[in-house]
Each structure stands twice: as C-alpha cells, then as structure tokens.
C-alpha cells in the first residue's frame, strides 16, 4: 500500500473546493446531515434456496408499550422474536423489559433471521460483534422500509461471546436504540462448555442503559445540538429495562454478562464493598485467565463477562454494583478568555444531567436470598487466545489511521463526514490480511502532548498520516466555521508551547507543519469564538464491524495524567475486542484481521449520537 495523503487532500479540495462558500453559510452539523441524506438503499435481501438453516427465527421490530415506572406505560420500540426452527433455548425473553429476547446461538450453526420492519420508519438490524458477510451485517445501505422483510443468512463463526443486535439505519440509530431496540446475543462453543461456568439461572445478562422520562413516563430524547455533541445522557439507570434493578441470588458464584447499551454514557463499574471485579471475558469472549480489577470501565457497545461469587455471604446481605467517580471523558465549559486547557473534569460538563457522567451512583443491587452449600470454582485458565504481534501484520510500520476529528458542531473520523461511497486509499483493505491500525485524536484540543506528537514527528510512520488527515479535516472546518469565528495564524512551535491553550478559543489556525499547501492546514481544534467557551477533546468508544481485534498498545499524552489516572486501571487488555474506549490524548494501536468476506464494513464511534452525526466510515475489504 503506497499512497500519499497529499494526493487525497487535493482530491478532496477538487471535489468540494467550489462548495466552500456554500458550506460556510450552513452550520456544519446540518451540512453533515445533508451529506448523509444522500444514501441509497438496496432492495431487501431474500432467502436463498441453497442455504439450509439449523436455526431460523422471525425478528420483528415494532412500536410497543411497556410498564417501566409506576403509572402510565412507556411507549417504546421493541424487538420480538419467534422461533421458526431450532433449539427452544435459542430465545429467552427478559420479562417486563423493552429489550429484545436474548438470542443464544452455537458456533457453527447456520442461522436465518427474517427481520420484519413493523416500525413506522426505515430500519435495519446490525449484529454487533458477529463476523458475517457484508451483505448481512446490517449496513445502512440495506435499510428496509416499514412493512418490508430482510432475510439474513450466515454461519456463526464467532467463538463463545456476548454480542449485541441493534438497529443501524443511517441518522436514526441512536434514536431507535434509545427507544428500546436492542438485545443480547450469546454465542456458545465447546471451549467454553468445558469450563462448566455458571449457567441457567446463574448466568445473568446485565444490560445497562440510561434513560430520561417526562412527567407522563414517556422517553425524552435529544433535541438540542449540544446533546448530540456530547452524547445524550439520561438521569435514570435501567438494568435489563428495569429501574432500581435488584437481583436476588443464592450464596454461590454467578456469571454476569454485562453490556453497556447506553447511547453515550460511560461507566466505571465497581462493587460497593471494594471487593475486586473479577473479569473472565470481554467483547470477544473469554480471556486466557481471570483478571481482578478494582473497577472496570465500560463504554457504549462494550461487554464484560464477570464472575461474581456470593458464596460465604449471609442471607439478607446486599452488594451494590456502582459506577464510581472519574473525570476527563467529557469536555467542560470554559469561561471566555481563560484558556485553561485539558482537565476540566468529566463531571457535569456542559450538560445539566441530574446524573452527571463520572459521578458516583448505583447501577443495581444484589441481594442474597438463599443459602446454598456448594458453588463452582473459578477456573485458573479459561481459553486459548492467539496473540497477534506486529510481525503478523502486513503494515507494521504504517498503521491504518482512524483519526478522531472533533470540532464545533462536528464529530467525524479521518476528517470526513460519513458517505457510503467515499473510501480513502487507507480504507481499502486487502482481503485476508491482518492490519495494524491506530486510533488517535487528530485534533488534540487541549491535550498538548498529543498534538506535539503529531506535529513533532516523533513517530515516523504516523507523521504522514496525521498531517494528511489534519489537512483534510481542516479543509472542512475552514468551510464550516470560517464565518463564525476569527482565524488564527499560528506556527507549530507556538502550538507546542501552549498555543493549544488558545486553540479552542479561536476558530482555527494555519499550521506550518510538514508539507505543501500550507495555507489550508488547520489542525487545531475549532472553537466557537471568543467569550463563549469551547469544545475540547472527549472520549470516544470506537467500534469496528467484522472480526474482533486485539489491543496492541495504549499511549497517553503526558499532560492527561490526572484524568487518566481515574480510569486507567479499568481497561482490560489481552482479550478480543470490537469496541475500544479512546480517552482524550490517547493513541490506541490495534491489530485486526480482515478475513473471509469482502465488502463494506463500518467503523464508527459507538457514542450513538456521534455516529448519527457522521462519526462513521467504512473499510472496503477488496
Ligand atoms: Cu464519539
């Protein structure tokens, strides 16, 4: 793969240069939405005559209502399922919940799912975490209209793991998930079965979500642009669709299959009695061995397999799983002219939620109600994982960039808003390759060391990528914000010294780093202009469709220390992942295989409000 970002930048300007003035006249976010509106859709997929399913089910999504709070029922959107063929244990309802039934599959099964869209709007369902062909991955290109049926057919290639099904139509994913459309997929295999982990009633799905209700018990959702920029946060925690969730347990070991199904909220999970959280698995299934953590971070789209042992606890005793306090995942509000950067805490930030992100609050309560004498023992070793190294990748010195671009009214990846047919050279992935990828903040807004690394050329492989990305996204931003704020011409030395202090206050700067078209390089974080406060870097859970990946390294900017210290012990390394939380100032290198299937596989922020703003792109596997 040899290509130059200079070339692609010119291509970008060639495509959109004429439109810059028009762009400038429209708020950037509105503009991004318009771009996304150009998406065509494919005719609904039909059943294939030569596919012989072991399991077949009808999955229906439709408006419904559920009693959640005392009083009036809440209008929701909900998945229902009917088993057409296969083992009865394939479907498990969660009583009284708006969540879809838990789907339980076996590795190697051939599965047909007939999705019936009975919503009053278009939708399509994505199998988050599953390794399936592109045409049945639930890409928004395959969105179906109300009344239509889409037939998914695939073989379960995944190892034992917990995955998610949820809608993925373009622009409305967050809204549909928020209104109830989500469910868990459990995959089992022989390797897992040999461990005889707690099963049946002792294996409990724990789907954590936050919601906001109005006085009539109806769900309230985002209206202000600000809710999209930061993500939408409810003021009420629901577990498995229930408020004030309490789980009655026997005094023995349980397996909690935990899933963050919130649209934006990040949790720092810990037991209230300070006993460690014992993690046996992550997004992509079991770890090699259990890991004890003081707390675990869980971002939207991530899963945790937790061993919770209540043996030895007395009947009547209680344990509360809490989200503990942390900071740094959200930008704060700044007074005009102050220019203090970086750590503004991840507390309330700019949103006035009664349940601030990063504050300390309960998730659910476990109550021991039965004494039993025996309990399974935690295995010392769990599963085999082949660990990828750089030498397994085709691009050890040149990671595929996933650049997080944060700007006023605008959250994108690799500098460009989502368009199904806009594939960068770096986004074309040869089939059956293992790729090194690097996720980083292209506009470090406030986290200077990150910016310094990008500008200073400390990583020879990364420099080209970064400067190219910045140039591209800078081009957008110039158009988007040029009318709203003053421009700043700064050279990089100043930026490195503390120019980032001002970056947010000013709309943009003209960087002088690296290459030619200097006048268009504006790597800085745009702001709203003096006096109004600013947007800074925030945390993003980045999700890649297709196969699971492994985390190779996390590197944090040196001046992010105080905030980062509040979360750093909560990341699980060494397992398979499909979503990774990237903190402000952080660079994460991952290794991901692209095997078996060609076609479009999305990568996006799993802050679903961000996704719907266009913080989403495709890899085209060729
Ligand atoms: Cu995001």
Automatic annotation (TrEMBL):
Oxidoreductase listed as a keyword: yes
**Keywords of the record:** Metal-binding, Oxidoreductase
- One Pfam family, short name: Cu-oxidase_3
Question: Which InterPro entries does this entry report, sorted A to Z?
Answer: Cu-oxidase-like_N, Cu-oxidase_C, Cu-oxidase_fam, Cu_oxidase_CS, Cu_oxidase_Cu_BS, Cupredoxin, TAT_signal
Q: Which CDD domains match?
A: CuRO_1_McoP_like (cd13852), CuRO_2_McoP_like (cd13879)
The EC code for this enzyme is 1.16.3.4
Q: Which reaction does it catalyse?
A: 4 Cu(+) + O2 + 4 H(+) = 4 Cu(2+) + 2 H2O
State how it assembles. Monomer.
The name of this protein is Multicopper oxidase CueO
Please give the organism.
Methylomonas rosea
């Amino acid at each position: 793969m040899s290509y130059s970002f200079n070339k692609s930048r010119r291509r970008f300007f060639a495509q959109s240069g004429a439109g810059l003035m028009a762009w400038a006249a429209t708020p950037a976010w509105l503009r991004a939405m318009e771009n996304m509106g150009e998406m065509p859709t494919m005719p609904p997929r039909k059943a294939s005559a030569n596919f012989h399913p072991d399991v077949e089910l009808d999955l229906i999504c439709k408006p419904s209502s559920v009693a959640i709070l005392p009083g009036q029922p809440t209008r929701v959107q909900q998945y229902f399922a009917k088993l057409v063929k296969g083992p009865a244990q394939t479907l498990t309802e969660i009583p009284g919940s708006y969540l879809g039934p838990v789907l339980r599959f076996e590795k190697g099964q051939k599965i047909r799912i007939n999705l019936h869209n009975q919503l009053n709007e278009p939708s399509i369902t994505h199998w988050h975490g599953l390794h399936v062909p592109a045409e049945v991955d639930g890409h928004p290109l395959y969105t179906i209209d109300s009344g239509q049926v889409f037939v998914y057919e695939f073989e379960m290639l995944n190892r034992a793991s917990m995955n998610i099904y949820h809608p993925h139509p373009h622009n409305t994913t967050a809204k549909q998930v928020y209104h109830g459309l989500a469910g868990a997929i459990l995959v089992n295999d022989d390797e897992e079965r040999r461990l005889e982990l707690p099963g049946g009633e002792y294996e409990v799905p724990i789907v954590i979500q936050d919601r906001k209700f109005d006085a009539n018990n109806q769900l309230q959702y985002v209206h202000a642009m600000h809710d999209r920029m930061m993500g939408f946060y409810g003021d009420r925690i629901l577990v498995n669709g229930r408020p004030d969730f309490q789980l009655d347990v026997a005094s023995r070991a349980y397996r909690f299959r935990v899933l963050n199904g919130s649209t934006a909220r990040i949790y720092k999970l810990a037991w209230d009695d300070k006993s460690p959280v014992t993690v046996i698995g992550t997004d992509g299934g079991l770890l090699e061995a259990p890991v004890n953590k003081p707390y675990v971070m869980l971002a939207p789209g991530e899963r945790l397999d937790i061993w919770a042992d209540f043996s030895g606890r007395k009947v009547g005793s209680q344990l509360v799983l809490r989200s503990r306090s942390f900071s740094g995942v959200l930008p704060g509000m700044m007074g005009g002219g102050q220019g203090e950067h970086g750590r503004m805490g991840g507390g309330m930030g700019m949103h006035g939620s009664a349940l601030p992100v990063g504050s300390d609050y309960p998730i659910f309560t476990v109550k021991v109600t039965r004494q039993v004498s025996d309990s399974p023992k935690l295995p010392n070793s769990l599963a085999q994982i082949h660990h990828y190294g750089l030498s397994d990748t085709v691009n050890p010195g040149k990671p595929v960039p996933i650049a997080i671009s944060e700007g006023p009214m605008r959250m994108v990846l690799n500098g460009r808003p989502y368009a199904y047919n806009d594939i960068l050279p770096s986004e074309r992935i040869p089939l059956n390759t293992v790729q090194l990828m690097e996720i980083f903040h292209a506009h470090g807004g406030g986290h200077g060391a990150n910016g310094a690394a990008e500008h200073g050329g400390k990583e020879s492989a990364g420099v080209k990528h970064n400067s190219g990305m910045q140039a591209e996204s800078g081009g957008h931003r110039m158009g988007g914000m040029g009318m709203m704020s003053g421009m700043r011409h700064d050279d990089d030395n100043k930026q490195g010294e503390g120019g980032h202090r001002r970056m947010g206050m000013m709309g943009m700067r003209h960087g002088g780093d690296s290459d030619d078209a200097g006048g268009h390089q504006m790597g800085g974080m745009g702001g709203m202009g003096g006096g109004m406060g600013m947007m800074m870097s925030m945390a993003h859970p980045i999700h890649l469709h297709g196969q699971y990946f492994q985390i190779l390294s996390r590197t944090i900017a040196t001046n992010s220390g105080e905030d980062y210290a509040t979360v750093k012990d909560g990341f699980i390394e060494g397992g398979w992942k499909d979503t990774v939380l990237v903190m402000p100032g952080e660079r994460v290198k991952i290794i991901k295989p692209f095997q078996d299937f060609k076609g479009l596989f999305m990568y996006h922020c799993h802050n679903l409000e961000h996704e719907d703003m266009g913080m989403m792109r495709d890899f085209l596997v060729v």
